[in-house]
């Protein structure tokens, strides 16, 4: 660790390390909320549609409760996302000042989608008991589309940083003759975007299903918990093999478009054919690899479907133009953790699918539900690992092969950045702690509402006093309206 820090300090100005740590912490915290901001609206509307289509009061109750979680999550996302927006300009003025006109449109698209999503969430929450059931549903349908549009803007900006296109350079190295279309639709946009979208949807699905898997393990075997588990888990299980294929596709795209990053994630030191695959392991500065599991020729086969495929090594470029051994090891471990968790989730999805096809029923083993309860947390870990692979594997470039991270960093004193990091950590701990506390309070309230419903009251009556001021109608009113 000390040697890595010494390397960072020696490789650039003193403010480089705290700027990196601040950006890493805020982005790493915000990215945990992204799956719910992007995918939870779609899962909620899927449950909402089921409730209206089948006149299912339980499905409508689940959709209404998930929409409340969606609103709370969106409010927290506003805080963490706004901080990131400021940090891009404050911490990396060199990048934004020189390249902002080239790739900044992606951030504009994300901001526009963000405001649209806020309006749509407000309409969706307000309309539960004030709009006709199907009218309410159709007004909510653009919500996941707005979320996907926001994700498109951010991923487009990141894809440009990985494969910058759409400009020429003048004699001073500044971009000219900007082609916005080419700057947005870069070679990595498609692979990154679809891998991201499918990843966040299945992550949200596994997390939501995991909540009801815990309830199932605690003996709550009612239809509420069964339906709350089955719908999101089915979505995630269907998308798991799709994500596995997309993950392989994006790795191959990196092989073609960013060969040095590919070499870092696969610990390839020298350009060669018949390159072995290492599962985990550690790269040393002299090119040797210790630990891990070596699988002969597999890396060449995965890269080009043949052991004769030549894989570019880290030594193909000067040491100053490639990730360090420590950075390569970090990217490699993050990538291997993603692959390992993805493989385990594939087995879990196959287990679920086999039982459903055979008996049209959930697996009966408690071990299945234990694994399902852990799947959401594992997916959140893969989201973090995906970001680490993308960003650390690109080092030392902030704009691949055009601008180094050290050239983009602010000239704010390092001491000020360390103080800012401390403040942000405290604020984020408080904000995320409040988020979890609100969710737990909501969960306890819903459990009490369900217990009250069993004793004669209705869950809808208990939920009548809500901040967004619905008119208290019976739960069956929405169901009857759904049948029309």
From TrEMBL:
Q: Where does this protein reside within or beyond the cell?
A: Cell membrane
Q: Which UniProt keywords apply?
A: Cell membrane, Electron transport, Heme, Iron, Membrane, Metal-binding, Transmembrane, Transmembrane helix, Transport
Its predominant location is membrane
Q: Give the transmembrane ranges.
A: 22-47, 68-92, 104-126, 138-161, 193-215, 227-246, 330-355, 367-389, 417-440
- Per its UniProt record, what Pfam families does this chain match? Cyt_bd_oxida_I
Which PANTHER family does the protein's record reference? CYTOCHROME BD MENAQUINOL OXIDASE SUBUNIT I-RELATED (PTHR30365:SF14), CYTOCHROME D UBIQUINOL OXIDASE (PTHR30365)
The family note in this entry says:
Belongs to the cytochrome ubiquinol oxidase subunit 1 family.
Its recorded name reads: Cytochrome d ubiquinol oxidase subunit I
- What organism is recorded for this protein? Streptomyces umbrinus
- Show the taxonomic lineage: Bacteria, Bacillati, Actinomycetota, Actinomycetes, Kitasatosporales
